[in-house]
């Protein structure tokens, strides 16, 4: 799968709300991910990069580009979850390589969290 096609994106407000209400949170440096299981059978990505954290549009766009590229490279190893990425202002001081490293840590945490129980978050009983 190449690029960032529409079917691997979170596009509707209801999809974001479901992740914020039912998702689990993972931190890595200045990045935060919320993730919730989905029925699609593959990972989907959404981003909530706030103007309050990153004032300038080109800074927000840089983060979005890096997140999309990292997701594209790692989506085959991610479980079937909806992921929303958020960030704090301290990501402005990070280089692209540091951000990629932070994102790899997030993907690894999500993989461990949701793959341990065959699609269930770790620590939950299977039906």
Strand order of the largest sheet: 1-2-4-3
**The level-1 CATH class:** Alpha Beta
What's the CATH architecture name? 2-Layer Sandwich
Helix coverage percent: 25-40%
> Uncertain segments of ≥5 residues (pLDDT<50)?
122-127
Sheet/helix structural class: alpha+beta
Separation of the first and last Cα atoms: 32 Å
Q: Give the tally of structural domains.
A: 1
Count of extended strands: 4
Could you please describe the fold and organization of this structure?
- By secondary structure, the protein is of the alpha+beta class.
- The chain has a single domain, classed as Ribosomal Protein S5, domain 2 (2-Layer Sandwich), CATH 3.30.230.
- The chain is built from three helices and four strands.
- A four-stranded mixed beta sheet has the order 1-2-4-3, with helices on both faces.
- A hairpin with a 2-residue loop joins strand 1 (24-28) and strand 2.
- It is globular.
- The protein starts with 12 loop residues before the first helix and ends in a 12-residue tail after the last helix.
Describe the structure concisely.
Residues 122-127 have low confidence and may be disordered. The chain is built from 3 helices and 4 strands; from the N terminus they run αβββαβα.
Key descriptive features of the protein:
127 residues, alpha+beta, Ribosomal Protein S5, domain 2, four-stranded mixed β-sheet, 3 helices, 18% strand, disordered C terminus
């Amino acid at each position: 799968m190449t690029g960032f096609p529409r079917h691997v994106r979170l596009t509707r407000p209801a999809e974001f709300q479901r992740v914020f209400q039912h998702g689990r949170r993972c931190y890595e440096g200045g990045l935060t991910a919320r993730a919730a299981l989905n029925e699609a059978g593959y990972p989907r990505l959404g981003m909530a990069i706030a103007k309050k954290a990153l004032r300038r549009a080109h800074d927000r766009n840089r983060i979005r580009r890096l997140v999309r590229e990292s997701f594209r490279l790692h989506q085959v190893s991610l479980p079937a979850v909806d992921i929303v990425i958020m960030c704090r202002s301290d990501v402005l001081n990070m280089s692209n390589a540091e951000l990629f490293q932070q994102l790899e840590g997030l993907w690894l945490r999500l993989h461990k969290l949701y793959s341990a129980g065959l699609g269930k978050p770790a620590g939950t009983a299977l039906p």
